[in-house]
Protein backbone atom coordinates (compact mmCIF):
# COMPACT_ATOMS: atom_id res chain seq x y z
CA UNK A 1 0.00 0.00 0.00
CA UNK A 2 2.83 2.40 0.92
CA UNK A 3 4.67 1.69 -2.33
CA UNK A 4 1.51 2.26 -4.38
CA UNK A 5 0.78 5.57 -2.63
CA UNK A 6 4.35 6.77 -3.12
CA UNK A 7 4.21 5.94 -6.82
CA UNK A 8 1.00 7.91 -7.23
CA UNK A 9 2.53 10.89 -5.45
CA UNK A 10 5.59 10.80 -7.72
CA UNK A 11 3.36 10.76 -10.80
CA UNK A 12 1.49 13.78 -9.46
CA UNK A 13 4.76 15.55 -8.72
CA UNK A 14 5.97 14.85 -12.24
CA UNK A 15 2.75 16.32 -13.60
CA UNK A 16 3.24 19.40 -11.44
CA UNK A 17 6.73 19.97 -12.83
CA UNK A 18 5.55 19.47 -16.41
CA UNK A 19 2.73 21.97 -15.92
CA UNK A 20 5.17 24.42 -14.34
CA UNK A 21 7.52 24.13 -17.32
CA UNK A 22 4.61 24.47 -19.75
CA UNK A 23 3.49 27.60 -17.93
CA UNK A 24 6.97 29.07 -18.30
CA UNK A 25 6.94 28.39 -22.03
CA UNK A 26 3.46 29.76 -22.73
CA UNK A 27 3.92 33.29 -21.40
CA UNK A 28 2.82 35.64 -24.16
CA UNK A 29 4.79 38.86 -24.42
CA UNK A 30 2.89 41.84 -25.77
CA UNK A 31 3.82 45.38 -26.60
CA UNK A 32 1.19 47.83 -25.39
CA UNK A 33 1.57 51.59 -25.48
CA UNK A 34 5.05 52.82 -24.74
CA UNK A 35 6.35 49.92 -22.68
CA UNK A 36 6.24 46.17 -22.92
CA UNK A 37 3.77 44.22 -20.85
CA UNK A 38 3.21 40.53 -20.30
CA UNK A 39 0.16 38.36 -19.96
CA UNK A 40 1.03 35.55 -17.56
CA UNK A 41 -0.81 32.27 -17.58
CA UNK A 42 -0.88 30.94 -14.03
CA UNK A 43 -1.69 27.27 -13.38
CA UNK A 44 -1.68 25.55 -10.02
CA UNK A 45 -1.67 21.83 -9.29
CA UNK A 46 -2.16 20.64 -5.74
CA UNK A 47 0.14 17.77 -4.85
CA UNK A 48 -0.60 15.84 -1.63
CA UNK A 49 3.04 15.46 -0.73
CA UNK A 50 5.12 17.37 1.81
CA UNK A 51 8.26 18.96 0.46
CA UNK A 52 7.06 18.99 -3.15
CA UNK A 53 8.65 22.40 -3.78
CA UNK A 54 12.06 21.16 -2.66
CA UNK A 55 11.73 18.06 -4.83
CA UNK A 56 10.64 20.20 -7.76
CA UNK A 57 13.79 22.27 -7.35
CA UNK A 58 15.81 19.09 -7.26
CA UNK A 59 14.22 17.88 -10.48
CA UNK A 60 15.10 21.21 -12.09
CA UNK A 61 18.72 20.54 -11.27
CA UNK A 62 19.15 23.68 -9.18
CA UNK A 63 22.50 24.06 -7.51
CA UNK A 64 22.64 27.37 -5.70
CA UNK A 65 25.91 27.21 -3.80
CA UNK A 66 29.51 27.49 -4.98
CA UNK A 67 32.17 27.63 -2.27
CA UNK A 68 34.50 29.70 -4.47
CA UNK A 69 31.88 32.04 -5.91
CA UNK A 70 31.75 34.56 -3.07
CA UNK A 71 35.54 34.86 -3.01
CA UNK A 72 36.02 35.74 -6.67
CA UNK A 73 32.94 37.96 -6.66
CA UNK A 74 34.60 40.17 -4.06
CA UNK A 75 38.01 40.06 -5.77
CA UNK A 76 36.63 41.18 -9.14
CA UNK A 77 33.94 43.58 -7.92
CA UNK A 78 34.15 47.08 -9.38
CA UNK A 79 32.36 50.26 -8.32
CA UNK A 80 29.79 51.17 -10.96
CA UNK A 81 27.83 54.41 -11.14
CA UNK A 82 25.29 55.58 -13.70
CA UNK A 83 25.99 58.05 -16.49
CA UNK A 84 23.08 60.54 -16.34
CA UNK A 85 24.01 61.91 -19.78
CA UNK A 86 22.89 58.58 -21.27
CA UNK A 87 19.62 58.28 -19.29
CA UNK A 88 16.31 58.11 -21.13
CA UNK A 89 13.70 60.78 -20.45
CA UNK A 90 11.56 58.00 -18.97
CA UNK A 91 14.03 57.39 -16.12
CA UNK A 92 14.89 59.26 -12.92
CA UNK A 93 18.52 59.07 -11.76
CA UNK A 94 19.47 59.86 -8.16
CA UNK A 95 22.03 62.54 -7.27
CA UNK A 96 24.59 59.93 -6.27
CA UNK A 97 24.12 58.20 -9.68
CA UNK A 98 23.42 54.81 -8.10
CA UNK A 99 19.62 54.63 -8.10
CA UNK A 100 17.33 54.30 -11.16
CA UNK A 101 13.55 54.69 -11.19
CA UNK A 102 11.22 54.29 -14.15
CA UNK A 103 8.46 56.85 -14.58
CA UNK A 104 5.36 57.39 -16.72
CA UNK A 105 6.04 61.14 -16.69
CA UNK A 106 8.45 62.26 -19.39
CA UNK A 107 11.38 64.11 -17.82
CA UNK A 108 12.91 67.29 -19.19
CA UNK A 109 16.46 66.43 -20.24
CA UNK A 110 19.21 68.22 -22.11
CA UNK A 111 20.02 67.14 -25.64
CA UNK A 112 22.99 64.81 -25.68
CA UNK A 113 24.13 62.55 -28.55
CA UNK A 114 24.93 59.85 -25.98
CA UNK A 115 21.39 59.78 -24.53
CA UNK A 116 18.80 57.04 -25.20
CA UNK A 117 15.77 58.90 -26.56
CA UNK A 118 13.62 56.23 -28.24
CA UNK A 119 10.38 55.71 -26.30
CA UNK A 120 10.76 51.92 -26.55
CA UNK A 121 14.25 51.98 -25.02
CA UNK A 122 14.08 53.56 -21.53
CA UNK A 123 17.74 52.83 -20.81
CA UNK A 124 20.82 54.15 -19.05
CA UNK A 125 24.48 53.10 -19.08
CA UNK A 126 27.16 52.76 -16.48
CA UNK A 127 29.72 55.55 -16.37
CA UNK A 128 32.66 53.17 -16.80
CA UNK A 129 33.24 50.92 -19.81
CA UNK A 130 35.60 47.99 -20.36
CA UNK A 131 37.88 46.93 -23.20
CA UNK A 132 39.70 44.14 -21.38
CA UNK A 133 39.82 42.13 -18.18
CA UNK A 134 37.32 40.45 -15.86
CA UNK A 135 34.86 42.53 -13.88
CA UNK A 136 31.90 41.98 -11.55
CA UNK A 137 29.15 44.29 -10.26
CA UNK A 138 25.76 44.00 -8.60
CA UNK A 139 22.39 45.69 -8.99
CA UNK A 140 19.57 45.38 -6.47
CA UNK A 141 15.86 45.37 -7.30
CA UNK A 142 14.09 47.89 -5.03
CA UNK A 143 10.68 47.95 -6.70
CA UNK A 144 9.33 45.27 -9.00
CA UNK A 145 8.51 46.11 -12.59
CA UNK A 146 10.12 45.37 -15.92
CA UNK A 147 13.88 45.55 -16.34
CA UNK A 148 16.80 44.40 -18.44
CA UNK A 149 20.32 44.15 -17.04
CA UNK A 150 23.55 43.30 -18.83
CA UNK A 151 26.12 44.96 -21.10
CA UNK A 152 26.01 46.76 -24.44
CA UNK A 153 28.46 47.93 -27.09
CA UNK A 154 29.37 51.59 -26.86
CA UNK A 155 28.59 52.16 -30.55
CA UNK A 156 24.93 51.06 -30.39
CA UNK A 157 22.53 53.64 -31.87
CA UNK A 158 20.81 55.32 -28.92
CA UNK A 159 18.26 57.28 -30.96
CA UNK A 160 16.48 54.17 -32.26
CA UNK A 161 14.96 51.21 -30.43
CA UNK A 162 17.69 48.94 -29.10
CA UNK A 163 18.04 45.60 -30.87
CA UNK A 164 17.45 43.25 -27.95
CA UNK A 165 19.91 40.58 -29.12
CA UNK A 166 23.64 39.80 -28.99
CA UNK A 167 23.69 40.34 -32.75
CA UNK A 168 22.59 43.90 -32.03
CA UNK A 169 25.39 44.46 -29.52
CA UNK A 170 23.41 43.67 -26.34
CA UNK A 171 23.85 40.84 -23.83
CA UNK A 172 21.25 40.95 -21.07
CA UNK A 173 18.52 39.16 -19.14
CA UNK A 174 14.96 40.39 -18.88
CA UNK A 175 12.32 40.42 -16.14
CA UNK A 176 8.81 40.36 -17.56
CA UNK A 177 6.51 43.10 -16.35
CA UNK A 178 3.22 41.67 -15.04
CA UNK A 179 0.46 43.93 -13.75
CA UNK A 180 -1.50 40.91 -12.50
CA UNK A 181 -0.88 40.72 -8.73
CA UNK A 182 -0.79 36.91 -8.92
CA UNK A 183 2.09 37.00 -11.39
CA UNK A 184 5.48 36.83 -9.68
CA UNK A 185 7.36 37.76 -12.84
CA UNK A 186 9.25 35.59 -15.28
CA UNK A 187 12.78 35.83 -16.56
CA UNK A 188 14.50 35.25 -19.89
CA UNK A 189 17.87 35.68 -21.55
CA UNK A 190 17.65 37.95 -24.57
CA UNK A 191 18.74 35.45 -27.20
CA UNK A 192 17.12 34.55 -30.53
CA UNK A 193 14.65 33.10 -29.71
CA UNK A 194 14.49 34.24 -26.05
CA UNK A 195 15.64 31.65 -23.51
CA UNK A 196 13.17 31.27 -20.63
CA UNK A 197 15.05 30.92 -17.32
CA UNK A 198 13.86 28.32 -14.81
CA UNK A 199 15.03 29.81 -11.52
CA UNK A 200 14.90 28.44 -7.99
CA UNK A 201 13.78 31.85 -6.73
CA UNK A 202 13.33 35.40 -7.95
CA UNK A 203 16.66 37.23 -7.56
CA UNK A 204 16.62 40.32 -5.36
CA UNK A 205 20.15 41.28 -6.40
CA UNK A 206 21.67 40.49 -9.79
CA UNK A 207 25.39 39.81 -10.08
CA UNK A 208 26.96 40.59 -13.47
CA UNK A 209 30.30 38.98 -14.40
CA UNK A 210 32.10 40.11 -17.56
CA UNK A 211 35.07 38.21 -18.98
CA UNK A 212 36.09 40.39 -21.92
CA UNK A 213 38.88 38.27 -23.41
CA UNK A 214 36.90 35.09 -22.72
CA UNK A 215 33.90 36.45 -24.60
CA UNK A 216 31.49 35.64 -21.77
CA UNK A 217 28.87 37.41 -19.73
CA UNK A 218 27.43 35.52 -16.75
CA UNK A 219 24.60 36.59 -14.48
CA UNK A 220 23.88 35.34 -10.97
CA UNK A 221 21.46 35.64 -8.12
CA UNK A 222 23.93 37.48 -5.89
CA UNK A 223 22.08 36.48 -2.73
CA UNK A 224 21.75 32.72 -3.26
CA UNK A 225 24.71 32.44 -5.69
CA UNK A 226 22.46 30.67 -8.20
CA UNK A 227 23.78 30.84 -11.75
CA UNK A 228 21.14 32.43 -14.01
CA UNK A 229 22.63 32.42 -17.50
CA UNK A 230 25.91 32.71 -19.42
CA UNK A 231 26.33 34.26 -22.86
CA UNK A 232 29.26 32.46 -24.51
CA UNK A 233 31.48 33.29 -27.49
CA UNK A 234 30.35 36.90 -27.34
CA UNK A 235 31.90 39.20 -29.93
CA UNK A 236 32.51 42.29 -27.82
CA UNK A 237 35.18 43.78 -30.16
CA UNK A 238 34.93 47.31 -28.67
CA UNK A 239 34.19 49.14 -25.43
CA UNK A 240 31.45 47.39 -23.42
CA UNK A 241 29.29 49.29 -20.91
CA UNK A 242 27.02 48.20 -18.06
CA UNK A 243 23.42 48.45 -19.31
CA UNK A 244 20.10 48.98 -17.54
CA UNK A 245 16.59 49.31 -18.98
CA UNK A 246 13.51 49.87 -16.75
CA UNK A 247 9.77 50.30 -17.16
CA UNK A 248 6.50 49.61 -15.35
CA UNK A 249 7.49 51.24 -12.06
CA UNK A 250 10.74 49.32 -11.61
CA UNK A 251 13.52 50.67 -9.39
CA UNK A 252 17.10 49.43 -9.30
CA UNK A 253 20.15 50.40 -7.24
CA UNK A 254 23.82 49.71 -7.82
CA UNK A 255 25.38 48.11 -4.73
From TrEMBL:
SMART domains: PRY, SPRY
Keyword Calcium: no
Highest taxon in the source lineage: Eukaryota
Keyword check for Coiled coil: yes
Gene3D superfamilies for this protein: 2.60.120.920
PROSITE patterns: B302_SPRY
Keywords: Coiled coil
Residues in B30.2/SPRY domain copies: 60-255
Name listed for the protein in its UniProt record: B30.2/SPRY domain-containing protein
Amino acid sequence: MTHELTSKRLVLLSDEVNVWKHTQNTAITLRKGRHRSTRCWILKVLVPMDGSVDMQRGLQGCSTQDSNLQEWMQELKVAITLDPDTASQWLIISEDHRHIQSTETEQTVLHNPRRFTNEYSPCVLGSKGFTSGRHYWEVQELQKGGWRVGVIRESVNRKEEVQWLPEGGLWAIDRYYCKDVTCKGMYEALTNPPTVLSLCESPGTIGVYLDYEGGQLSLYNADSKEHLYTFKQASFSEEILPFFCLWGGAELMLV
